[in-house]
# Entry
Amino acid sequence: MILGIAISGAQADDYLGEFCWRATDRTVMKLFVRDFGAGYFTVVGSIIEEEEVIVTGSAKLGPEDVVLTLIASKDIQCWTGGRICYADVSLPDFNCTLKCIAVGNTSEEDSTPEIETKYYEKKWFQYLVPSNSYQ
# Structure
């Protein structure tokens, strides 16, 4: 309900606060949200799995959900690549499904990089109350 309250009283370019989710595998997604006006929002934050991956994107408020598009890139150990993610946050319970396509290359020193594509989907059942939400 905090996001609903934040959205209903927001003016264009208002900072709405930090919103967090945890997946069943303990992955955490933290997003900082700014109202861009007319039901559109900009988001920045991170997805923390084994390492933190910085994300940026946008969101659109619908009648029953908030749809997000997130983009990330990271150089992790021997894998360099990017992710394009789609998230659907249901209202008013804030359950979230995150679907990502990751494209990158794996390489060891002195070897030819191999392009690799991965698809994954995660369910985010627990919404964590933001520590700094819009009042």
